[in-house]
Design goal:
The protein is α/β, with parallel strands linked by helices. The protein is 44% helix and 14% strand.
Length: 259
């Protein structure tokens, strides 16, 4: 994800991915990153971004958005912005977008929040299908518990609505094991975020294998079902990209089974 290198242009991000052996990039939009892929770029800018990625042989594996749905007062606006993000993804050649459940407002209980989030995702599901894009809800914020995310996607019951399994957050926030989270979400996982962190009152990012997230087990489980999608490294405000990008992918490659 471009949080590792927000100061780089799209050409520079693609060159970086090739240099360090990454198969794809995940542009984070709405954060001022200099890659230039945003919902307001015109058609020629979208076509150029797609051409650059295709020429580089690097996939635009996901468009990471800030869209949230748990607040019913924002539903119509969030649904409209989601459709715009779906169009952007389709135009630049990305098969998926990442979204959040979002903070549950005061006075709204969990069951009602599941209804609200599922309602918004149902409202955009047809557009996602028509554009060939999958909307992936992340295990994040008030939706770190795989059970809650599963309840949403089960309610929607549409092939264009799926899950982005951030493997850290169910462990960090809910005490879930990698196996239990994967077992609950397995039918819907279409994208994965990985990163490791320290435990304690002030958790921080750390190199994979030095924290509390069992990345080896996550890779084993995904390989065991011949999972065909992407695991995307998400590192926000951490060390320089030329320090962590080569080291973290080398660790993850080391966990891959020999075929």
């Amino acid at each position: 994800m471009t949080f590792s290198c927000p100061e780089l242009s799209l050409t520079e991000v693609l060159d970086l991915a090739r240099r360090y052996g990454y198969d794809g990039i995940e542009p984070r939009i709405e954060e001022g990153h200099l890659h230039g892929i945003e919902a307001d770029i015109p058609a020629d800018g979208r076509a150029e971004a797609r051409r650059l990625a295709e020429d580089a042989g690097i996939a635009v594996c996901c468009i990471a958005t800030s869209r949230t749905y748990a607040d019913p007062a924002r539903s119509a606006m969030e649904e409209d912005l989601t459709r715009r993000a779906i169009d952007l993804a389709a135009d630049v050649g990305s098969p998926r977008i990442r979204v959040f459940g979002g903070a549950i407002p005061a006075g709204l209980d969990r069951a009602a929040a599941i209804d609200v989030v599922a309602g918004s995702l149902s409202a955009v599901a047809g557009h996602a299908r028509d554009r060939g894009v999958t909307v992936c809800v992340e295990t994040h914020d008030d939706w770190c518990d795989p059970e809650h995310v599963a309840a949403v996607v089960e309610r929607v019951d549409h092939p264009s609505i799926a899950v982005n399994w951030d493997i850290m957050h169910p462990v960090r926030a809910c005490g879930q094991s990698i196996d239990s989270a994967f077992g609950r979400l397995r039918p819907w996982i279409r994208h994965v975020h990985f990163h490791d962190g320290t435990e304690g009152d002030a958790p921080t990012l750390c190199p994979i294998g030095q924290g509390y997230v069992d990345h080896r087990r996550a890779v084993e489980l995904l390989a065991g079902v011949d999972w065909p999608h992407y695991m995307s490294g998400e590192w926000i405000g951490w060390e320089p990209y030329d320090a962590h990008l080569p080291r973290e992918i080398a660790t993850m490659r080391g966990y891959e089974p020999v075929r």
